[in-house]
Predict the structure.
Amino acid sequence: MGIPKGSNLCHGTGGNGYAFLKLYRRTNAPIWLDRARQFAMTAIFQYRGAQMVAGRGRYSLWTGDIGLAIYLWDCITGDARFPTIDVF
């Protein structure tokens, strides 16, 4: 069995959740925002578990807590601007 996915943007729950945010922005159907927010709750749970195991956070955009924070903010605002791809 492989290593479980983390909460991060790169191969993690946060990055996958952006698909729901993109669908929400394109269709304006609230179900997609709700699903993105459900992914956000899972990502928070994953983040807390990883922090307890490591005893510290991870401080990078793609594989760390910074990317997760951006995803969580986008879930609050309903925005779908994936870092570096849609922002810069």
User: Anything to note?
Assistant: The first helix runs from residue 13 to 27. Helices lie at 13-27, 30-54, 65-77. The mean pLDDT is 89.
